[in-house]
Amino acid sequence: MSNLLDLAPVVPVVVLDDAESAVPLARALVAGGLPVIEVTLRTPVALDAIRRIAAEVPEAVIGAGTVRSPEDVEAAAGAGARFLVSPGTTPGLLAAMLASGVPFLPGVATATEAMTLAERGVRELKFFPAEPAGGVAYLKSLGGPLPDVRFCPTGGITPSNAPAYLALPNVGCVGGSWLTPRSLVTAGDFARIEKLASEAAALRP
Ligand code: 3PG
What we know:
Blueprint: E1 10-14, H1 22-31, E2 36-40, H2 46-56, E3 61-65, H3 70-79, E4 84-85, H4 91-100, E5 104-105, E6 107-108, H5 111-119, E7 124-127, H6 130-133, H7 135-143, E8 150-153, H8 162-166, E9 174-176, H9 182-187, H10 190-201
Parallel strand pairs: 1-2, 1-9, 2-3, 4-5, 6-7, 7-8
This protein binds 3-phosphoglyceric acid.
Family: Belongs to the KHG/KDPG aldolase family.
Pfam families: Aldolase
EC number: 4.1.2.14
Protein backbone atom coordinates (compact mmCIF):
# COMPACT_ATOMS: atom_id res chain seq x y z
CA MET A 1 0.00 0.00 0.00
CA SER A 2 1.52 3.31 -0.95
CA ASN A 3 0.47 6.78 0.07
CA LEU A 4 -0.83 5.75 3.44
CA LEU A 5 -1.19 9.44 4.21
CA ASP A 6 -3.71 9.95 1.43
CA LEU A 7 -6.31 7.36 2.34
CA ALA A 8 -8.19 9.54 4.86
CA PRO A 9 -7.71 13.02 6.33
CA VAL A 10 -7.77 11.76 9.92
CA VAL A 11 -6.36 8.59 11.47
CA PRO A 12 -8.12 7.76 14.73
CA VAL A 13 -5.62 6.77 17.42
CA VAL A 14 -7.40 4.16 19.52
CA VAL A 15 -6.59 2.88 23.01
CA LEU A 16 -8.72 -0.17 23.77
CA ASP A 17 -9.31 -1.73 27.18
CA ASP A 18 -11.73 -4.37 25.95
CA ALA A 19 -11.28 -6.41 22.78
CA GLU A 20 -15.07 -6.78 22.51
CA SER A 21 -15.26 -3.09 21.58
CA ALA A 22 -12.85 -3.45 18.68
CA VAL A 23 -15.20 -4.57 15.91
CA PRO A 24 -18.14 -2.23 16.63
CA LEU A 25 -15.69 0.62 17.08
CA ALA A 26 -13.98 -0.06 13.75
CA ARG A 27 -17.36 -0.38 12.02
CA ALA A 28 -18.43 2.99 13.44
CA LEU A 29 -15.23 4.70 12.25
CA VAL A 30 -15.52 3.18 8.78
CA ALA A 31 -19.20 4.15 8.59
CA GLY A 32 -18.24 7.69 9.52
CA GLY A 33 -15.75 7.81 6.65
CA LEU A 34 -12.47 7.06 8.44
CA PRO A 35 -11.26 3.63 7.28
CA VAL A 36 -7.64 4.01 8.45
CA ILE A 37 -7.49 3.06 12.13
CA GLU A 38 -4.50 2.89 14.47
CA VAL A 39 -4.86 0.67 17.53
CA THR A 40 -2.06 1.44 19.97
CA LEU A 41 -0.08 -1.37 21.55
CA ARG A 42 -0.58 0.17 24.98
CA THR A 43 -3.06 -2.25 26.42
CA PRO A 44 -2.99 -6.02 26.80
CA VAL A 45 -5.91 -6.46 24.39
CA ALA A 46 -4.40 -4.44 21.54
CA LEU A 47 -3.14 -7.36 19.45
CA ASP A 48 -6.39 -9.24 19.91
CA ALA A 49 -8.29 -6.11 18.85
CA ILE A 50 -6.16 -5.77 15.70
CA ARG A 51 -6.71 -9.45 14.92
CA ARG A 52 -10.47 -9.12 15.28
CA ILE A 53 -10.72 -5.98 13.17
CA ALA A 54 -8.51 -7.50 10.46
CA ALA A 55 -10.74 -10.58 10.36
CA GLU A 56 -14.16 -8.99 10.73
CA VAL A 57 -13.93 -5.49 9.26
CA PRO A 58 -12.11 -5.96 5.95
CA GLU A 59 -13.06 -2.49 4.77
CA ALA A 60 -10.95 -1.00 7.58
CA VAL A 61 -7.24 -0.42 7.05
CA ILE A 62 -6.15 -1.52 10.48
CA GLY A 63 -2.73 -0.57 11.81
CA ALA A 64 -0.75 -0.78 15.03
CA GLY A 65 0.50 2.27 16.89
CA THR A 66 3.00 2.77 19.68
CA VAL A 67 5.27 0.26 17.95
CA ARG A 68 8.54 0.60 19.83
CA SER A 69 10.63 -2.52 19.23
CA PRO A 70 11.36 -5.25 16.67
CA GLU A 71 9.23 -7.54 18.85
CA ASP A 72 6.31 -5.12 18.50
CA VAL A 73 6.77 -5.12 14.72
CA GLU A 74 6.62 -8.88 14.58
CA ALA A 75 3.62 -9.12 16.88
CA ALA A 76 1.68 -6.41 15.06
CA ALA A 77 2.39 -7.86 11.62
CA GLY A 78 1.44 -11.30 12.90
CA ALA A 79 -1.87 -9.95 14.18
CA GLY A 80 -2.72 -8.58 10.75
CA ALA A 81 -1.72 -4.93 11.06
CA ARG A 82 -1.59 -3.36 7.60
CA PHE A 83 0.60 -0.48 8.76
CA LEU A 84 2.78 0.37 11.73
CA VAL A 85 3.21 3.69 13.55
CA SER A 86 5.96 4.56 16.02
CA PRO A 87 6.40 7.55 18.32
CA GLY A 88 10.12 7.80 17.48
CA THR A 89 12.62 5.87 15.40
CA THR A 90 15.62 3.89 16.60
CA PRO A 91 18.03 2.12 14.23
CA GLY A 92 16.83 -1.29 15.43
CA LEU A 93 13.17 -0.40 15.04
CA LEU A 94 13.75 1.06 11.57
CA ALA A 95 15.56 -2.08 10.45
CA ALA A 96 12.69 -4.25 11.70
CA MET A 97 10.06 -2.06 10.05
CA LEU A 98 11.90 -2.10 6.72
CA ALA A 99 12.38 -5.86 6.91
CA SER A 100 8.71 -6.48 7.75
CA GLY A 101 7.44 -5.37 4.37
CA VAL A 102 4.52 -3.70 6.19
CA PRO A 103 4.00 0.00 5.39
CA PHE A 104 5.00 2.18 8.32
CA LEU A 105 4.97 5.72 9.61
CA PRO A 106 8.04 6.22 11.77
CA GLY A 107 7.90 9.01 14.33
CA VAL A 108 10.15 12.05 14.04
CA ALA A 109 10.28 15.50 15.59
CA THR A 110 13.31 17.16 13.98
CA ALA A 111 14.80 17.95 10.57
CA THR A 112 17.73 15.63 11.28
CA GLU A 113 15.44 12.72 12.05
CA ALA A 114 13.39 13.38 8.91
CA MET A 115 16.56 13.62 6.80
CA THR A 116 17.93 10.40 8.28
CA LEU A 117 14.77 8.56 7.22
CA ALA A 118 14.65 10.24 3.81
CA GLU A 119 18.19 8.94 3.25
CA ARG A 120 16.75 5.47 3.71
CA GLY A 121 13.97 6.20 1.23
CA VAL A 122 11.27 6.73 3.88
CA ARG A 123 9.43 9.98 3.21
CA GLU A 124 6.06 9.49 4.87
CA LEU A 125 6.50 10.17 8.57
CA LYS A 126 4.58 10.71 11.77
CA PHE A 127 5.35 14.11 13.29
CA PHE A 128 5.15 13.58 17.03
CA PRO A 129 4.27 15.13 19.41
CA ALA A 130 2.90 17.65 16.94
CA GLU A 131 1.60 20.47 19.11
CA PRO A 132 4.31 20.46 21.82
CA ALA A 133 7.07 20.07 19.21
CA GLY A 134 6.11 23.22 17.33
CA GLY A 135 2.84 22.64 15.58
CA VAL A 136 1.81 24.10 12.25
CA ALA A 137 4.54 26.76 12.16
CA TYR A 138 7.25 24.15 12.70
CA LEU A 139 5.96 21.83 9.99
CA LYS A 140 5.61 24.74 7.61
CA SER A 141 9.27 25.57 8.21
CA LEU A 142 10.34 21.98 7.50
CA GLY A 143 8.48 22.14 4.20
CA GLY A 144 10.97 24.69 2.78
CA PRO A 145 14.16 22.59 2.92
CA LEU A 146 12.42 19.18 2.92
CA PRO A 147 9.63 19.52 0.34
CA ASP A 148 9.73 15.81 -0.56
CA VAL A 149 8.95 14.66 2.99
CA ARG A 150 5.31 14.35 4.09
CA PHE A 151 3.88 14.05 7.55
CA CYS A 152 1.01 12.79 9.64
CA PRO A 153 1.13 15.12 12.64
CA THR A 154 -0.16 13.50 15.82
CA GLY A 155 -0.24 14.65 19.42
CA GLY A 156 -2.50 17.47 20.52
CA ILE A 157 -4.51 17.56 17.29
CA THR A 158 -8.14 18.65 17.70
CA PRO A 159 -11.02 19.40 15.33
CA SER A 160 -10.11 23.08 15.77
CA ASN A 161 -6.44 22.94 14.84
CA ALA A 162 -6.64 20.05 12.33
CA PRO A 163 -7.68 22.21 9.32
CA ALA A 164 -4.53 24.36 9.62
CA TYR A 165 -2.37 21.24 9.52
CA LEU A 166 -4.33 19.72 6.64
CA ALA A 167 -3.86 22.92 4.64
CA LEU A 168 -0.06 22.45 4.64
CA PRO A 169 1.35 20.90 1.45
CA ASN A 170 3.59 18.55 3.46
CA VAL A 171 0.72 17.13 5.55
CA GLY A 172 -1.27 14.23 4.16
CA CYS A 173 -3.40 13.47 7.19
CA VAL A 174 -3.49 14.02 10.94
CA GLY A 175 -3.81 11.53 13.77
CA GLY A 176 -5.71 11.94 16.99
CA SER A 177 -7.47 10.29 19.86
CA TRP A 178 -10.39 12.71 20.02
CA LEU A 179 -12.62 10.44 17.92
CA THR A 180 -12.57 7.58 20.37
CA PRO A 181 -12.65 8.94 23.92
CA ARG A 182 -12.49 6.20 26.52
CA SER A 183 -15.80 7.35 27.99
CA LEU A 184 -17.67 6.75 24.71
CA VAL A 185 -15.90 3.46 24.00
CA THR A 186 -16.61 2.16 27.50
CA ALA A 187 -20.22 3.24 27.25
CA GLY A 188 -20.54 1.54 23.86
CA ASP A 189 -21.71 4.80 22.31
CA PHE A 190 -20.64 3.89 18.78
CA ALA A 191 -23.29 6.13 17.23
CA ARG A 192 -21.58 9.13 18.78
CA ILE A 193 -18.20 7.85 17.59
CA GLU A 194 -19.57 7.50 14.05
CA LYS A 195 -20.76 11.11 14.25
CA LEU A 196 -17.32 12.30 15.42
CA ALA A 197 -15.76 10.35 12.56
CA SER A 198 -18.07 11.86 9.95
CA GLU A 199 -17.29 15.35 11.22
CA ALA A 200 -13.56 14.57 11.05
CA ALA A 201 -13.86 13.05 7.58
CA ALA A 202 -15.22 16.41 6.40
CA LEU A 203 -12.27 18.37 7.79
CA ARG A 204 -10.21 18.26 4.62
CA PRO A 205 -11.44 21.17 2.54
C1 3PG B 1 -0.56 9.10 20.21
O1 3PG B 1 0.19 8.51 19.46
O2 3PG B 1 -0.91 8.74 21.32
C2 3PG B 1 -1.07 10.36 19.75
O3 3PG B 1 -0.12 11.28 20.06
C3 3PG B 1 -2.40 10.74 20.28
O4 3PG B 1 -2.31 12.02 20.75
P1 3PG B 1 -3.61 12.81 21.21
O5 3PG B 1 -4.18 12.03 22.34
O6 3PG B 1 -3.07 14.14 21.63
O7 3PG B 1 -4.51 12.88 20.02
